[in-house]
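Record type: monomer structure entry
Structure origin: computed from sequence
Chain ID: A
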Amino acid sequence: MDAIIYVVFSIFAFVCAYPFYYIFINTISANNLSERGKIVFLPQDIHWTNYTQVFKIPELFHAFEISLARTVLGTAITVITSAFLGYMFTRQTLWHRKLWFRMTAATMYFNAGIIPWFLTMRNLHLTNNFWVYILPLAISPFYIILCKTFVESVPRELEEAAEIDGAGTLTIFLKIILPVIKPILATVAIFTAVNQWNAFQDTLLLVTDSKLYTLQFLLYNYINQASSLKALVNSGSSGVNIAASLAHAQTATSIRMTVTMVVVVPILIVYPFFQRYFTKGIMIGAVKG
């Protein structure tokens, strides 16, 4: 049975990891071979020209700054609001606590659709506005429920002792609750960071100002316009260099895969730092009694 389990999970791990490996080896292999689908398991004619050329795209670094800003700021705000509301929903003194919690949870199951959502964002003057990346995602019912469940596992005696000493609600939240619920905060943070980093639909629907384009939206555009982008990138190289090494000339496939790696690597680097809190936060928040 142990052997079967190891085999099954090894196959599953391979299926999960191979697409990233496949994309990477195609970005560092000869572009003419990659274009014809000849690179499958091992790289050939290794070079790093794809990365040096893609990094020359003018909008890339600005889009990276926008994505980084929305990820950091959006994650911080979402974590704080989720933790505070999750804590407040455990307070017996909150007026109509159960009613507000049920109304919040109901939004997980019902939504008006894209058109009413777009009209609401427009009426709030959030189109072509950086805050469109932050405010609509500041409150998430799912994360609030995670934090509420976790806070309920914290001994009530801690709050009672602080109340006896004269601590108010905000003081208890900041000095008692927040330090205790770090695992669930890290869990919410990694969920939110991944969602913020990967989001592009809000840019597609609400943003026309190129100064507010995110890295993922550029990836979306580049995948759809890889052929024209190939000519743009190649135009930045000298004809002599391209003639000397046709294998390194940019192709639509190399552009797609290289930009994909550039977009994915940052979140892959961040994830391991939060992963050790991930399982702990989910399991502790799910177990009661």
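Annotation 1: Residues 51-286 form a domain with the MetI-like fold fold (CATH 1.10.3720.10).
Annotation 2: The chain has two domains: 1-46, 51-286.
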